[in-house]
Design the sequence.
């Protein structure tokens, strides 16, 4: 069996897939809850690889490529050093991914390993979209800029949208939103990312499952001066905020919140705030476009939560987006009425297939 192994290491999880590179089909997969370099994860990977005769490549998702990894790169001393320089920019995600990379390079020394940064899709954002209004000495000394994330998901969703609309991806001007454990929006003009809601780290923008998204930086300074220390602040923003914090600790999962919203005001509020913030980010990103060919939903929530999709589009009529959607779409495709001024599309997230594509391109 010939395959590409795609590896998606989270802060405390591992998703790995064997992909047929010709048919772009998943042959087998494992999903481990726990450290991606744990004994359990290694055993799962060993079982996954037991029947593979020809491993073409190993594609590693890297959440943050930093300033130097601007495209998929075969792992060598140079690319590995660049990846390590990005560790402090996404400390929850990059270090465990690189630890797992070390494990798999020892376990699989023969096939090429390829680093696939999630930031690469946004590497050519225009200067006005990458520059934060901060003192020049800070920006220059620390390399401060906006990077953007969820690039693998957006690349796949853009190409699928092009297929569904029967147009070249390079001709499309669209808004896209990846809604899942992490959430963001992206504006694409002429097939290229021109604005996105996440910036220097994956903490900015839309509220997420447990991450806050954008909040007033002055409020954070106030908290630091009034009894909240740096470690507590970091933990609160990354692990106790977002949908989880909005719902009073009930859940960071929209499925739980939708089920509870009728009887739990906090759950209902969490969903309203979430939809409001997604709409606001989409509307802001639309100012980077000269027209709107489609709105594209992807990500686990975007794909699997029709109630959330309906709440988001309910406030986008000014952009020409229809307020009513087909709730039970089965598979990728149009979820607005056929004559809508701006079609709304649903695309299943397939980062594992995009990882395969990126690795083969790099080789």
Sequence:
């Amino acid at each position: 069996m010939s395959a590409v192994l795609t590896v998606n290491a989270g802060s405390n999880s591992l998703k790995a897939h064997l992909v047929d590179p010709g048919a772009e089909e998943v042959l087998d997969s494992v999903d481990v809850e726990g450290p991606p370099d744990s004994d359990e994860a290694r055993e799962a990977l060993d079982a996954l690889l037991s029947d593979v005769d020809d491993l073409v490549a190993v594609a590693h998702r890297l959440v943050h490529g930093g300033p130097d990894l601007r495209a998929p790169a075969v792992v060598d001393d140079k690319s590995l050093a660049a990846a390590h320089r990005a560790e402090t920019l996404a400390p929850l995600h990059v270090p465990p991914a690189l630890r797992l990379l070390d494990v798999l390079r020892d376990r699989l020394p023969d096939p090429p390993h390829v680093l696939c940064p999630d930031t690469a899709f946004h590497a050519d954002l225009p200067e006005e979209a990458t520059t934060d209004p901060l003192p020049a000495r800070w920006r220059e000394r620390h390399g401060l800029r906006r990077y953007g994330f969820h690039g693998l998901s957006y690349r796949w969703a853009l190409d699928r949208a092009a297929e569904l609309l029967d147009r070249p991806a390079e001709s499309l001007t669209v808004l896209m939103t990846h809604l899942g454990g992490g959430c963001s929006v992206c504006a694409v003009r002429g097939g290229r990312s021109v604005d996105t809601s996440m910036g220097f780290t994956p903490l900015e923008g839309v509220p997420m499952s447990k991450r806050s998204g954008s909040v007033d930086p002055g409020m954070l300074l106030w908290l630091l001066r009034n009894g909240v220390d740096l470690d507590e602040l970091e933990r609160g923003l990354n692990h106790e905020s977002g949908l989880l914090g909005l719902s009073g600790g009930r859940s960071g999962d929209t499925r739980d919140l939708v089920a509870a919203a009728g009887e739990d005001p906090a759950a209902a509020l969490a969903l309203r705030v979430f939809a409001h913030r997604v709409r606001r980010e989409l509307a802001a990103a639309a100012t980077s476009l000269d027209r709107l060919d489609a709105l594209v939903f992807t990500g686990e929530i975007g794909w699997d939560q029709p109630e959330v999709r309906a709440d988001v589009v309910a406030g986008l009529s000014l952009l020409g987006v229809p307020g009513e959607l087909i709730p039970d779409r089965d598979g990728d495709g149009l979820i607005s009425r056929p004559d809508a001024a701006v079609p709304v599309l649903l695309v299943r997230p397939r980062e594992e297939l995009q990882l395969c594509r990126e690795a083969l391109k790099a080789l």
About this structure: The two ends are 20 Å apart (CA to CA). The chain has 14 helices and twelve strands. Residues 265-286 form the longest helix (22 residues).
